[in-house]
Amino acid sequence: MKIEIAKYSGYCFGVKRALNMVEKTLEKYSGSGKKVYTLGSIIHNPGVVIELSSKGLISTGDPEDIEPDSIFIVRSHGMSPKVLKRLAGKNIEIIDATCPFVKKAQAKAKKLEEQGYFVVVIGNRDHPEVIGIKEHVSGAGVMVIEDISEASAFLNKKKVGVVFQTTQTADKVKEIVSELIDKCRELIIYNTICDTTKNRQDSTRKLSGKVDIMIIAGGRNSANTTHLANISSSENSRTYHIESSDEINPEWFKGSEKIGISGGASTPEKDIIKIKNMIESIDS
Ligand code: F3S
To answer: Taking the model in full, what pTM does it have?
Structure first.
């Protein structure tokens, strides 16, 4: 079997940067008695989360659990400025690992509101990045649109400004935006899909179209990995989304010659290599 890894695959710039900041922070405060927190998992990858928790990183679901005089790391997804303000008031040191691409989407949304536009965020409403972008806009002048049916139900407005969740697919946002055109006089669109996401989606699409089987590696709770799996499935019905090499079933590869592997932006390179080695061992 010939195995090819997608040209753009695995950790993106924003995730690498955030993990680096976490490692440095844990090292700096190790033995100091200070607790280091994140709100939710630092990245959507169960293996990495377990590793960092063994080094002392505390992941909590409720900001109220964060103790005064501790350290709080904002994830690459960014977060609500209101929550950050509350934490800062409790004498908690904030380390901001928000990805610069997410910061750009937050700033564009804020600017649109200041210019009098009704802000639409195209993305998954429960995703922390989308919640954070939305909360950078105050008041009722913002809404999230997840799919074409919600775009169809959108009530006419005079001035509409649109930003995208950084990991959306170009096809999906095009579909939604074309529906919005008929529903406003003035439409401003900021394409805030990050370059990394686009590169990963394009290279996954290309590879999945030329192999017999495509493996997509990464957390099932990772939005960008799930998008890669969907893109690959649309090109290749023999697509398998797995979180680790343990999920590989040798039966999948019977009679196959070309295998492709791609990993989401929160998938460590070592996981991708492990999957490749595992498939090679099936072949030998
Ligand atoms: Fe940033 Fe894009 Fe990664 S927004 S966190 S570089 S997927």
So the answer is: 0.87
